[in-house]
Small ribosomal subunit protein mL103 (RPPR7)-like (Coffea arabica), 132 residues
Amino acid sequence: MDYGVAPDGVIFATLMHAYFKAGNVEAAMNENGLCKNGRLDEAKLHFSKENANEISYTVLIDGLCKQENLVQEFRLQKQMVKEGIPPNLFAYSSLIFGLTNKGFMIEAKQVFDDMLKKGTSRDHVVYDILIR
């Protein structure tokens, strides 16, 4: 339904988060107009610049982490940085969580070190992810 009002980044991110929480990655991608011609995996790589901001990237990275799609997660993080949007604490935490859940502790430590090198603040959550 079109009410003549474009959703802002917060509304967009909230919708994506709800879809991911429900386990519906395809709906999350469709919400951003990414799922074209049934090519969901390819669509994830071409994240829409129209709605891209720190919040939407972070929500998408977190959703991919929960779907255990580490390759796509890292590609999206790389694209985020390329577009001049540095990952925030939540994005880094999601990346580290995804890696540790798959047993990639060395890679998780490398992401943590990168986070420190970039000056991103850390909290107890990221430390908890690393030590469990």
Summary: Helices lie at 9-21, 25-31, 40-45, 54-66, 70-82, 89-101, 105-117, 124-131. The chain has eight helices and no strands.
